[in-house]
Amino acid sequence: MSDTSNSGGSSGSATPGGSRSAMGTAHRGKVLGVTISAALGGLLFGFDTSVINGAVDSIQHTFELGAAAIGFTVAITLIGCAVGAWFAGQLADAWGRKSVMVLAAILFVVSSVASALAFADWFLMTWRFIGGLAIGIASVIAPAYIGEIAPARLRGGLSSLQQLAITLGIFLALLSDAALAGSQGDAMRQLWFGLPAWRWMLLVGVVPAVVYGILSLSIPESPQYLIRKGRRDDAKAVVRDVTGAIDIDRRIHEIEDSLEIERRATYRDLRGKALGLQPILWIGIGMAAFQQLVGINAIFYYSTTLWKSVGFSASDSFVTSVITSVINVVLTFVAILFVDRVGRKALLLWGSAGMFVGLVLAAVSFAQAHVSGSTVTLPEPWGVIALIGANLFVVFFAATWGPVMWVVLGEVFPNKIRGLGLGIAAAFNWVFNFLVTLLFPILSQAVGLGWVYAGFALFAALSFWFVFSALPEVTGLELEDKSKLEHIHRDRATA
Asked: Of 419, 413, 427, 416, which is closest to residue 86 (Cα–Cα)?
């Protein structure tokens, strides 16, 4: 045991700028590899929520479904995501982060195969729900694990890799759908083994799930979980080999003190005076809710109309979708580069302001729209202005709230309640995702797109106020940092 400690100390006290910096480079490589493996859960997240889009019309035709039935078939995945996210933290605390990652991969593999071979709509819905469980679990475990394994100085950028994986998953799903549907965009055309293209669209999800499962088996367990289970030597090995901590014993003691390892967290630990919950949990729920209430999913509902209003044809819809997904991928790198330098709070505030401007432009533009049945047209110059506003919104969301919300959820909760708190916050994220997706077309018909986008703009403004007044800044602090915990306790006392 003493050898482990001494080796950590000696590597840190080596000649300045010499072996210590070399060791730092080695640790950066290790922690990056481990983080990428965990972040691939985000790839499943993005891939599955997008791949269904290419198959929707064919599923509706195959099973002879009405509009409500096909809508629920698609949306039921989001309900599964909320349920999976809710229980993911508890499972991770009981079984370990690695085991739950592997569970998510297995559920996703089985769901992809069963959905592709579905013989009835109810069967497809059942397995899409189970696939949602896997996505919900992955959406919680990735930020929790990365937050625990990454050094404070790199944690923001590394945690943002999950959002990068999500955007890459969306992009790969679009490419996969297009390749399988062919140049004519026919998802019903027969491919290998007599299966139509839309079934292969769902089946191809097995590939990223298997990769994710294999990589999950190869990464170390988080030191927080190992210490909670009394495996102190194993935890020290992870701290030494992956995180690159200089004083290993001190780091272990900090984790032990923050965990209160005599018992695992329960829902009782989440209770507080602020409407029955701890203020820090309300902060997490608020962050998760605002990320969806600004309308990131709904903004694409009329994306084809936006592009058509400035001269693009409906047949170009795939190209415009790819452009949007590329914007998502590229702008996520902004968060990766700046989240640890600028800080979480500053990026989120800039994001809220930028999204507000973009949404106001879209709201004013759609207020001028001419509606005829299901057709929406925008007179000059409002089509161009709406297009600028929508893409400005996407740019600011992709560079800030998209990735940084998950970074915050992975680190803002104290160690003892991180699993539970993150799971509950992520569940609310999926619930609001479902509600916005479900209500957007209904509200658009009832009050008009201009008012709907104005509502999104209002939530963007409220998100600015929420971050400014409620969110503690934890950039650069270890999860166990006493000053961070004191800051959170002061927030609780004054809430």
From this structure: 427
Instruction: Please give the backbone phi and psi of residue 266, each rounded to the nearest 5 degrees, phi first.
Output: -130, 175
Query: Is-contact 324 345, C-beta < 8 A?
Result: no
Neighbours of 72 (CB within 10 A): 15
Q: What pLDDT was estimated at residue 478?
A: 52
| Positive/negative CA dihedral, 18, 20, 22, 25 | negative
The count of other CB atoms within 10 Å of the CB of residue 320 is: 17
Place of tokens 């007599």: 194
Q: Which residue has the tokens 């089946």?
A: 203
Query: CB–CB of 222/145 below 8 Å?
Result: yes
Residues 306-347: pLDDT tens digits? 666 555 655 565 566 667 777 777 888 777 777 777 778 888
Q: Can you tell me which residue has the tokens 């370990």?
A: 96
| DSSP code string of 269-307 | GG--SBTTB-HHHHHHHHHHHHHHHT-TTGGGTTHHHHH
CA distances from 257 to 95, 228, 251, 408, 464 (A): 21, 11, 10, 22, 34
Other beta carbons within 10 Å of 69: 14
98-135 as b/e, with b when 16 or more CB fall inside 10 Å? bbbbbbbbebbbbbbebbbebeebeebbbbbbbbbbbb
Q: Which two tokens stand for residue 165?
A: 């994986």
**Separation between Cα atoms, residue 294 and residue 275, nearest integer Å:** 24
The two tokens of residue 201 are 């669209």
pTM across the whole model? 0.70
Do residues 428 and 293 touch, judged by C-beta distance below 8 A?
Answer: no
Domains of the chain: 23-219 (1.20.1250.20), 266-495 (1.20.1250.20)
CA distances from 324 to 198, 296, 321 (A): 23, 12, 5
- Name the percent of the chain lying above pLDDT 90: 11
Distance (Å, rounded) from C-alpha 113 to C-alpha 20? 49
